[in-house]
Amino acid sequence: PQIMDHEWARGLGLVSFAGYKLQDTNGEPIGVLALFSKQSITPEEDVMLEGLAGITAHVIHTMKAEGALKVERDKLINILESMEDGVYIVNQAYDVEYVNPVIEREFGHVEGRKCYEYFHDRDEVCPWCKNKKVFAGKTVRWEWYSAKNNKTYDLLDTPLRNYDGSISKLEIFRDITERRQAE
Predict the structure, then answer these.
(1) What is the Cα–Cα distance from 88 to 104, expressed in whole angstroms?
(2) Range 138-142 average pLDDT
(3) What is the sign of the dihedral through the CA atoms of 77, 80, 83 and 87?
(4) Which one of 18, 25, 26, 68 is most buried, by most CB atoms within 10 A?
(5) Three-class SS of residue 55?
(6) Per-position b or e across 69-90, b if 16+ CB within 10 A of its CB
(7) Within 10 Å of residue 126's Cβ, how many Cβ atoms?
(8) How many angstroms separate the CA atoms of 139 and 171, rounded?
């Protein structure tokens, strides 16, 4: 392609122009990659630039998708952190991956601890642990009395499928101490 009748381009010594449509994965246009050159664009360069346009479109699409995921993640974290119930996530190695502020207020700082250490001050997996059932895909509801804070909780353990296909456990703590005392 050549630049025609563009005085500003000729003033800069530009003799070629190439424009490549940038498309999303559905073929919808998202922009144009434009190149102005002081040399004629060869057919080989044209093929290379077309490939560069494809890579550019992919990068733009990926960045938009990552931005959308971050927005969704932030919304979900906001929901979890504004809940009145405690929420925590544990992986199959028993590492606590997330606790909301309710759990941290009730049980303290968690970073780098196993769930059995954090909640039960144990050095090994608890014999009553429900994690194996949850990691096998089952939802489990049970009650637990915490000697740490003398409270009784209604617990709902549910499988949480991760992006890599593994399963973590999402547990929701509802304090039912007053109800149990009234009963």
Answers:
(1) 10
(2) 97
(3) negative
(4) 18
(5) helix
(6) eeeeeeeeeeebeeeebbbbbb
(7) 13
(8) 10
Residue 137 tokens, joined: 């895909």
Q: Is 121 left (phi over 0), alpha (psi -120 to 50) or beta?
A: left
Distance CA 143, CA 171 (A): 12
| pTM to 2 decimal places | 0.68
Tokens of 153: 């909780």
pLDDT, one tens digit per residue, over 98-117 is: 999 999 999 999 989 999 99
118 Cβ contact list (under 8 Å, min separation 6): 96, 107, 110
How far apart (Å, rounded) are the C-alpha atoms in residues 100 and 78? 10
Q: What is the pLDDT of residues 144-154, one digit of tens each?
A: 999 989 999 99
Dist. CA 36–CA 39, nearest whole Å: 9
Query: How far out from the chain centre does Cα 5 lie?
Result: 50
d(C-alpha 17, C-alpha 34), whole Å: 7
Let me know how long the chain is: 183
